[in-house]
Specification:
Layout lengths: L1 H67 L82
Length: 150
């Protein structure tokens, strides 16, 4: 049994050595990946900071150009250049307001009865309704049978 015991102990030692080697390889791989991710994150952050600085510099240049040109950013907007007015309404007639108000117009009179006989006229009859087409006879160009509310 000692031979079996030593074979098992040797086999166990080999498995432990392989497991330890695999574990250390995995740990090293994880460490390298973590360092690579951290490096990429630093590079992205630095690139973003450079981009923000560039955008701030451009915005400052635009402000300086606007200041040098003695313009506001909205100076070209014609609506903002309209003259201030005290009047809240516009006059479309071109005439001055009347000093005296006009008297109100008299209400319209109903039409006088005519001499034609007072017999009621027959009302015209509406045209007969046509029946709806069967559903299998559908024409894409005919929109009269479509129910647009569904």
């Amino acid at each position: 049994m000692t031979n079996a015991h030593s074979t098992l102990a040797e086999r166990l030692a080999q498995l432990q050595a392989r497991t330890e080697a695999r574990s250390s390889r995995l740990a090293e791989s994880a460490r390298r990946q973590s360092e690579e991710i951290a490096r990429r994150g630093r590079e992205r952050r630095e690139a973003a900071e450079r981009r923000v600085e560039e955008l701030h510099r451009r915005a400052e240049e635009k402000r300086e150009q606007a200041k040098d040109a003695n313009e506001e950013p909205a100076a070209k907007n014609q609506w903002l250049q309209r003259p201030e007015s005290r009047e809240a309404t516009y006059r479309f007639t071109g005439q001055e307001e009347e000093t005296e108000p006009r008297p109100p117009a008299p209400p319209p009179q109903p039409p006088a009865p005519t001499a034609i006989s007072e017999t009621p006229r027959p009302q015209p009859t509406p045209p007969p309704r046509r029946a709806a087409r069967p559903s299998n006879d559908f024409d894409d160009d005919d929109f009269s049978n479509n129910n647009w509310l569904q």
